[in-house]
Amino acid sequence: MQLDEFFVTGEPLIYGGMVAIALVTSAILFILTYFKKWGWLWREWLTTVDHKKIGIMYILSALAMLFRGGADALMMRTQLAFPNMQFLNAQHYDEIFTTHGTVMIIFMAMPFLIGLMNIIVPLQIGARDFAFPFVNALSFWSFFFGAMLFNISFVIGGAPDAGWTSYTPLAGAAMSPGPGQNFYLMGLQLSGIGTLATGINLMVTILKMRAPGMTLFKMPIFTWSTFITSFIIVFAFPILTVALALMTIDRIFGSQFFTLTGEGMPMMWANLFWMWGHPEVYIVILPAFGIFSEVIATFARKRLFGYNAMVWSIILIAGLSFLVWVHHFFTMGAGAFVNSVFSITTMLIAVPTGVKIFNWLATLYKSRIVLTVPMLWSLAFIPSFVIGGVTGVMLGMAATDYQYHNTYFLVSHFHYVLIPGTVFACFAGLVYWYPKMFGHKLNERIGKWSFWLFLIGFHVCFFPQYFLGLDGMARRIFTITPEWFTLNFISTMGAFMMGLAFAIFVYCIYYSYRYSEREISGDAWGYGRTLEWATPTPIPAYNFATVPQVNTHDAFLEMKEKGKTTFDEENLEPIHMPNNTGKPFIMMGILFFASFFLVFEWITLAVIGLIGGLVMMIIRSFDYDDGHHIEVDEIKRTERAARGL
Amino acid sequence: MNQQRHPFKKWLALVPLGFIVFLSGCELAVLDPAGPVAQSQKDLMIYSLYFMFGIIIVVFVAFGVMVFKYRDNKPNRKDEDYKPNLHGNTLIEVVWTVIPIIIVTALSIPTVTTLFELEKPPESSADKEPLVVYATSADWKWFFSYPEQGIETVNYLHIPTDRAIEFHLSSADSMASFWIPRLGGQKYGMAGMENILYLQADVPGTYNGRNANFNGEGFTAQTFEVQAQPQEQFDTWVQETQEQAPELTQDEYDSLLKPSLVEEMTFSSTHLQWVDHGTNAGRDYSIIRHRNAYDETLHIENVPGPGWISENE
Q1: Are B153 and B258 in the same domain?
Q2: Taking a C-beta distance cutoff of 8 angstroms, is the pair A92, A11 a contact?
Q3: Nearest to A461 by CA among A489, A487, A494, A484
Q4: Residue ranges making up the domain that contains B215
Q5: Contacts of A161 (CB under 8 A, 6+ apart)
Q6: Contact criterion met (CB below 8 Å) for A356 and A310
C-alpha cells in the first residue's frame, strides 16, 4: 500500500483536521513532558480502577466526541443551508453523516451516561466500588480505544460512508470497498466489548453491593434505570457483536452472509442491526429518565411521585423495546399483518412513557421548584420530549409511516427524542453531580445562558424539519432544491445556536474551575436526597467510611433528619480496596493495534495482535493481586480533614 | 397574579390553531395528495394529529401551571401548597394509564384497516385492471418496464390517471425506496425480491419521485418524474414510444447498470427478457458484472450555475 493511499488526501477540510490533530497532540505531549506529568498520568489515570476516576474519563471522552459529532453536524447544516451549496461534495457528505450518527450514539450518548453511572451508582447504593473494578477499567479502555480507532478513519484510510445503520448490500465489500467500513465494524466491535462488560458489571454491582436495608424497591430511581439498562445491554449487545462479526468475515474473508452473490441475505443485517438498535435507543433513554427523576425530585424538594409506577414503566419499556424492531423498516414489504403487529407494539410504548411524563408533572404538584441549571434542563425536557414522543407515535402508525419514512420528519423525530432525552439529561446530570466530581459548582449565570441558547437553538433547528419531511425532503441528500431553502436556512441557524451554546458550556467549565467557590459540605445543593450526597467532598477513595443503614427511598434525607453521617467513628474497620493496574490499558492497547491491522486486512499482523491480547488474558489469569487495606487511622485522618472536624 | 396568567393561556390556545391553519394553507407534498393512496394516508395523518395536539395541549398546560404555580420564589406562597411527602394517588394513576391505552386503541384500529387496504388496488378504480409497471432501481437510476406494452423508460414514467398502477419493485444492486410523495407512501426495492406497491393518480400532472433510501454516492440524484395523464394521452404516448424509440440491447442495458448517473431514456423493448432483478435468479446479475466499478467515486458535487448536480470525472 502506498503512503498516499494510507492517508486521506485531496480534501482541504481533512488537511485542516490533520494539522489540528497534530497540533493538539504535540501540545498535549509537550505539556505532559514540560510539567513532568507522565508519571502522574500513568499512576492516577491510566492505571486507575477507581469508579469515580473512570467515570470522569468516560465523561471527558464523551464531551470530546460531542465536539466531534457536533462539528460534523455543523458541516452538514452548512452544506444544506443554501441550494447549490459547494461546501461538501456527495462523498464527503456521506462520510460526515455516517460518522455523525455513529459517534453521537456509540461514542457520545452511551459513554456519557455510562460515565455518570460509573460515578453515581456505587455512591447511590452505598458501595465502595464496582463489583469488578478491573473489568470496569477494561471496559473504559475498550471504549476509548474503539472510539480512537473509529475516529482516526478520518485521516487514515478513509471514513465509513454507508450510514450509521450500514445497511447491506451497500456496506458490503463489493459496494463499499476500502478500509472505511472496516473502521466502523472494528471500532464498534472493540468498544462493544466494554459496553457488554459494563452491563454485567453494573448488574452484579447493583444486585450484590447495596447498603444494608436497601431493598430493590428502595433503590434510587437512577440506580433502577441503570439496573434495567444493564439488562438491555446484556441481552441486546450480543446481537450486535454477532452481526458485526458476520459482516467483518464477509468483508475481510469473503464469506457471503449479507451479500447479493452466493445466496446471502442482505436484509438479515437490517433485522439484526435493529434487534440491537432499538433496544440501544432505550439504553440511552432510560438512564436519562433516571437522571431527570433524580433532578426533578431534588429541586422540586419533594418525594418522587409514583415511585413504583416509575419502576414498572421502566421495566415495561425495556421489555417492549425488544418487540418493535421492525418499525425501522415497515416499508420492507413484510405485509399488512406483520406491520400491524409491530405498529401496535410500537404505539404501546407510549403508555408507560406517558405514565412517566404524568408522574414527573405530579412530582411538581405542590412542590417548591428551585430553578437551578440542572432543573432547567430537566424541566425543558418534558415539553420538548412530548413533541418527539407524539411524532414517534405517528411514525409508529405503519400506514402513514410509508410517507414519513426516510424523510426529515423522521430525522426531526429522533433528534426530538434523543436531544431533549439523552443530551439534556447528560447536561442535567453533569451539572447536577459536578460538585460531587470536581469539588465546585458550575457557574449558574453562564450555565443559564448556555441552557437557553441551546434550548431555543434546538427547537429552531429541528422543528422546521418536520415540515421539510412532509414536503418530501428525504434524509441523507447532500444538497437541497430552492423550494426547501427557507426552512433549511432557519434550521441551520438553530444548529449554530446549539454550537454556540456548547462553546459557552465549555467556557463555563473553565470559568467555574477558576472562580467558583470550593465546595466542602458534600451536599452541595443543600437538597440532596440520596446517598451520593452523604459522602464528603472530595470523595475519599473508599467512598463510605461506614456504610449507612437504609430504611427509606431517600436515604440521605433520613440521615440528615436524624443527624447521621457516613463517618461513624466507633464502627470503623479497615477497608479492602483494589490495587491500580496497567493491564486493562495494555490489553486494550494491544487489541487496538490488532483491530487496526484487521481494518487494513493485514492478517499476519492482526493475528500477532490477537495473540498478544490472549497472552495478556493469560497473564491476568495468574494475577494473585488481592488489593490492599486502608487502615482505620488513615480513614480517620481523611474523614476528619474532609469534614473539617 | 391571575391577570398575568390569562393572556398567557390565550396565547397557548392560538398555537395549535395557527398550526392547523399553517398545515392546511401551505402545500406540503405529502399533505397535497393527487390520488386515493396518498389521500387515505393523509386522512389517517390528520386523524392522528388531532390526538397528538390534544396530548400536547394537556401536557403543556399542566406543565405550565405546575412550573408557574409551584416555583419556590413565587410571592405569597401558602404553606399548604407544599406537600413534600405526597407520593401517589391510585385513582389518578389509573386514569392516566387508561387514557393512553384508549388513545393507542383509537389509533391502532384505523392504522390496521388502512394497512390492509393499501395491500390492494384502490377501490375507486376497481372496475379497471391495474397497469403493471416494473420499477427497478440500479445505482443511481430508475428503470420502468411496461411488460404489457413492451416499452421501457429510464428516470421518468408516464401513467394513466384514474387507474391503479401495480408497481413491481426491485433493485439491481443496493436497496432503494420507491417514493412519489404526492401519490402515496414508499416501499423498498431489493435485489432478488419483489415488492408490490399500488399507487394511483386522479389529477393529471407532473409529480416528483425519488429513491428515499440512502444507497451510496449518487443517492441524491436518483430521482425521476411521473407524468400522470388521461388514458387516451397515455395510449398515444405508448404508441409513439413503441414506434419511435430504439430497442434496448442487452449490451446497452448492462452498461447502463454500471454505477452512474444517466439522463432520461426511452426504449421500445424491456430488460425483462434477460433478467428480472426481483427474482432470486436475477439478484447478482449486476454485481457480478460491475463488481469493480465501485472502486472509484463519481465525484458528484454542486457546480456554479444552473443544474444542481454534476458529474465531474
Answers
A1: yes
A2: yes
A3: A494
A4: 130-290
A5: A91, A94, A95, A98, A176, A180, A181, B217
A6: yes
> Which chain B residue lies closest to A361 (C-alpha atoms)?
B63
Nearest beta carbon to residue B100 from set A305, A354, A391: A354
Closest CA–CA distance from residue B61 to any residue of chain A (Å): 10
User: What does the pLDDT read at residue B4?
Assistant: 44
| Average of per-residue pLDDT across A78-106 | 94
Q: Which residues of A touch B303 (CB under 8 A)?
A: 86
Cα–Cα distances (Å) from A456 to A219, A377, A494, in that order, read 35, 12, 7
- A3 has pLDDT over 80: no
Alpha-carbon distance A99 to nearest alpha carbon in chain B (angstroms): 15
Contact with chain A for residue B47, Cβ under 8 A: no
CB pairs < 8 Å spanning A and B: 296
What is d(CA A331, CA B175) in angstroms, rounded to the nearest whole number?
11
Question: Which residue of chain B is at minimal alpha-carbon distance from A340?
Answer: B112
A37-643 CATH choice from 1.20.210.10, 3.40.50.1820, 3.40.1260.10, 3.90.640.10: 1.20.210.10
When the pLDDT of each residue in chain B is averaged and rounded to a whole number, the result is 90
Q: Does A551 touch chain B (CB under 8 A)?
A: no
- B55 contact A CB<8A: yes
Task: Tally Cβ neighbours within 10 Å of residue B18.
Answer: 11
pLDDT (tens digit per residue) in A495-516 = 999 999 999 999 999 999 999 9
A-chain residues near B211 (CB < 8 A):
474
> CA separation (Å) from B263 to A88, B179, B239?
24, 19, 22
State the cell numbers at A426. 447528560
Query: Per-residue pLDDT for B313 more than 60?
Result: no
